[in-house]
Design a protein that fits this description.
One of its GO terms (cellular component) is cytosol. Keywords: Cytoplasm, Methyltransferase, S-adenosyl-L-methionine, Transferase, tRNA processing. Its EC number is 2.1.1.228. The protein is α/β, with parallel strands linked by helices. It folds into 2 domains: about 160 residues, 3-Layer(aba) Sandwich (Alpha/beta knot); about 90 residues, Orthogonal Bundle (Trp Operon Repressor, Chain A). The protein is built from 8 helices and 9 strands. The strands form 3 sheets. A 5-stranded parallel beta sheet has the order 2-1-6-5-7. Helix 6 packs across helix 8. It is elongated, with a radius of gyration of 23 Å. The model has no long low-confidence stretch (mean pLDDT about 95). Bound molecules: 6-chloroguanine. 6-chloroguanine binds next to strand 5.
């Protein structure tokens, strides 16, 4: 996969040289190219922003540098090959989810346009939206000073899904939010050596060698955590995904089916 990032802070993206993403690049599984937006300015002060039409606080990123930068980056692709998906980080975008990470991981080429200030002149998004698949994406319900940190988040979420990046092909089957087996449940707790630490042991079942019991215990723990931390995930889950044992643990946790079959809280929350 090729990823281009156009930014006024290329140094903000240094973490892309480290750890999983850095290794994927070093191994040739991922080709990341950073571009300084100011290289496409022509004035003495390398101006990238200006005051908003209609007034109001803050500054807006000018369309000209973005247009020249994106034309150059998009034009550097190989003739006849698939054009990039343009990913525009913005707090007013659609939520970035594991589902979108999977979809993006299947594309050969992504271009990210992290903005500072109050965002990019709307005409830029319209212009490229006429030619490319453009995704305006938010990483959560909070406001950051710019899109660079969201790009780090999204590139890592996508890179770990690329073939060969994680050691074990099964490694993301059980991810929280992965489509499939543990769908829509958070992952439960994990333990490693030593078997006792500061007087704290580990659950006996994990030492039992009984794979069926271990799988059931993990699923029960996943329900405990999901009920506590993300009850909305249980409420919106398809109840057909819950087996008899799932319904038992949910009942113990104070959850049961409503008139429509979907699960909701039917008894007070249980303390940890
Ligand atoms: Cl993508 N950008 C900014 N500036 N703030 C955000 C965000 C993006 N997602 C959540 N907050």
């Amino acid at each position: 996969m090729r990823i281009d990032v156009v930014t006024i802070f290329p140094e903000y993206l240094e973490p892309l040289n480290v750890s999983l993403v850095g290794k994927a690049r070093a191994r040739g599984l991922l080709d990341v190219r950073l571009h300084d937006l100011r290289e496409w300015t022509h004035d003495k002060h390398n101006t990238v922003d200006d005051t908003p039409y209609g007034g109001g606080p803050g500054m807006v990123m000018k369309p000209d540098p973005w247009g020249e930068a994106l034309d150059a980056v998009i034009g550097s692709g190989v003739q006849g090959e698939e054009p990039p998906v343009l990913v525009v980080p913005t707090p007013s975008g659609r939520p970035f989810t594991q589902e979108l990470a999977v979809e993006l991981s299947e594309k050969p080429w992504l271009v990210f346009t992290p903005a500072r200030y109050e965002g990019i002149d709307r005409r830029v998004i319209e212009e490229y939206g006429d030619r490319l698949d453009v995704r305006e994406v938010s990483i959560g319900d909070y406001v950051l000073a710019g899109g660079e940190a969201p790009v780090l988040v999204m590139v890592e979420a996508v890179a770990r899904l690329l073939p060969g990046v994680l050691g074990n092909a099964e490694s993301h089957r059980d991810d929280s939010f992965a489509p499939g087996a543990m769908a829509d449940l958070l992952e439960g707790p994990v333990y490693t050596k030593p078997p006792e630490w500061r007087g704290r042991g580990i659950p006996d079942v994990l030492l039992s060698g009984h794979h069926g019991k271990i799988a059931r215990w993990r699923r029960d723990e996943a329900f405990r955590r999901t009920v506590r931390n993300r009850p909305d995930l249980i409420e919106r889950a398809d109840p057909a995904a819950f087996d008899k044992k799932d319904r038992e643990i949910l009942s113990i946790l104070g959850w049961g089916p409503g008139p429509d079959g979907r699960f909701g809280r039917v008894a007070p929350d249980v303390e940890e």
